[in-house]
Model the fold of this input.
Amino acid sequence: MSKHAPLPTVSTEHRRLALASIALVALGLSGCVGVAVTGAAVGAVASGDRRSLGTQADDCLLYTSDAADE
Done:
């Protein structure tokens, strides 16, 4: 004989609520990975450059505005 209490049953409504909650959390966190990877890549590239971040940003803006004028 088993001395354990029977497991409680979970209603279909509770299962749907749990799945919806997990889906919403997953959707909310899905962009975090992309932002973290992009930030790490930009940080790695910027750290290898001797110029300041402001100068790098200015050069990028100048480059993109020159390309837009052509």
Observations:
- The helical segments are 12-47, 53-69.
- The mean pLDDT is 78.
- The radius of gyration is 26 Å.
